[in-house]
Amino acid sequence: MNNAQDNRNHQKISIARLSIISNTTLIVLKLVIGLLISSISVISEAVHSAIDLIAALIAYFSVRKSAQPPDDSHKFGHGKIEDISGGIEALLIFIAAIFIIYVAVERLYTGSQIETEAPGIAVMAFSAILNFFVSQKLLKVAKETDSIALEADGWHLRTDVYTSLGVFLGLLLIAITGLKILDPIFAILVALFIIKAAYDLTKRSVYDLMDYRLSDEDELKISAILAEHTSQFLEFHKLRTRKSGSDKFVDLHLVVSKKLSLDEAHELCHHLEADLKKAFPTMSVVIHVEPCGTNGISCTFKCDEKKCTFKCREIR
After folding, report:
1. Is residue 4's pLDDT more than 60?
2. 175-213 pLDDT, tens digit each
């Protein structure tokens, strides 16, 4: 593993550790204040942060495991563990949302008994600010390292920002209007928002587990990099891509002049692979070389050069 990849892995592990610390702090604050003022919406936010902490722990261990190099049992690396962790995190979010809705509906029937709103308003404001900055860092590193585990954790915290602001607004309205029924109502709204985030995360993790192809943007970028060397080959086809955690995989068939020697064809493939890895540092590339004139493809011109000059045309 090169130094650049080592730095990326260290960056992923460090930011995952920061998420664990921030979530632990918020759980304690929200739970204490929620119990102190008997606010189900604040307590629901404590549950939300507890799920975020579990997600942060899963993300931390998954990025550590995915950073390990391929071994005899995992020839393609350990990237899939990040996709699996994303699915587990989504399930945990669903469970938390159902719990919040259950308690909130029960409170609608029994009545909300908030003692005072000020401590809840303060802790929700602090939670929103802290989670905003931590989620910004998580999403930034997730984008730089293409880590679904960190992205999932980042969106967990970003969701917490919005829900904390929702509870903040609810408690503020209760303080102004005296309508304590708003507390469980806002808790249910928090739960619905959490369910939407869980759905999006589940969809993303399932796509990667099913070897869904890379994005259109990535595939166009791959084609553009190959197109920079069209003077050295006739064409490429059967381009296939997939993703495993932050690792990307691509394989393709490359049609070259049959005048190329084995060494020259190898050197061309090595050069193309290096260019692709420069743009996609975690990419593994497999290139199948085909000489022109094979597989039912013949040329209208006799090749006299080792570089394709586009005099050749396919006749099927």
Report:
1. no
2. 787 777 777 777 787 778 778 777 877 777 777 677 778
Tell me how far apart the alpha carbons of residues 82 and 13 are, in angstroms, rounded to a whole number.
13
The predicted model scores a pTM of 0.58
Torsion 101-105-108-110 (CA) sign? negative
Q: In what order do the strands lie in the sheet with 235-244?
A: 235-244, 247-256, 283-291
CA dist., res. 30 & res. 48, Å (int): 10
**Burial level of 167, CB count in 10 A (0-12/13-18/19+)?**
buried
Q: Taking a C-beta distance cutoff of 8 angstroms, is the pair 230, 307 a contact?
A: no
Q: What is the tens place of the pLDDT at every residue in 282-307?
A: 788 999 998 886 655 445 444 545 45
Question: From the centroid of its chain, how far is CA 149?
Answer: 5
Structure tokens at 42: 């604040």
Which helix (H) or strand (E) is 77 found in, with range? none
pLDDT tens profile 226-284: 988 888 888 888 899 888 767 788 999 998 888 888 888 899 999 999 999 888 887 88
Q: Which residues of 95-124 are buried (b: 16+ CB within 10 A; e: fewer)?
A: ebbeebbebbeebbeeebebeebebbbebb
- Asked if 127 and 29 touch (Cβ cutoff 8 Å), the reply is yes
